Amino acid sequence: MRRFWLTCVSFAIIGIIFFLDQFTKTIMFASDHAPSFSFFGGWIKSVQHRNAGIIANIALPSSLILSISLMVILLLVIGIILSIRQSHQFSLIIASLILGGALGNTFDRLILSYVRDWLLLFNRSAINLADVSIVIGILLYFLYTAKKTAN
Questions:
Q1: What is the secondary structure of the chain as a DSSP string?
Q2: Cβ atoms of 35 and 28 closer than 8 Å
Q3: Entry pTM
Q4: What is the dihedral of CA 139, 140, 143, 145, to 10 degrees?
Q5: In percent, how much of the chain has pLDDT > 70?
Q6: Strand pairing of 115-121 and 125-127?
Q7: For residues 124 and 30, what is the distance between their CA atoms, to the nearest angstrom?
Q8: Residue 1 above 70 pLDDT?
Q9: More confidently predicted of 67 and 62
Q10: Residue 61 above 90 pLDDT?
């Protein structure tokens, strides 16, 4: 019964992240009249950026990007399955956060051939909610492993 609920939690996290990511991308790219905002003196602001590369818009062949994305997704699915089997709730949450973000960006790349980024940070790097979810998952992973190593 516990595995069932862990599976439900994992699918819920993945689904919510995917939905919110696609929803915000749709709103921010709906038209030229998409919502515009700026915070902290312009350090964070809205933008419509079509990212055809990987991190920091580094150009790579799209087939290579998709291959890497699909391998990462496969590894995350395996991690989720192992976390459910071993009842590691925190590992499950971490993998679900990263997988939800990875699916959101991979969906864009498969459908549009680019990822829609709409949040510009420090006038240098455009990101989206999928990226935020991935970064949070990775940070939690490092905190989790550091704590586990300390004990």
A1: -HHHHHHHHHHHHHHHHHHHHHHHHHHHTSSTT----EEGGGTEEEEEEEE-SSGGG----HHHHHHHHHHHHHHHHHHHHHHHHHT-HHHHHHHHHHHHHHHHHHHHHHHHSSEEEEEEETTTEEE-HHHHHHHHHHHHHHHHHHHHHH-
A2: yes
A3: 0.84
A4: -110
A5: 92
A6: antiparallel
A7: 23
A8: no
A9: 67
A10: no
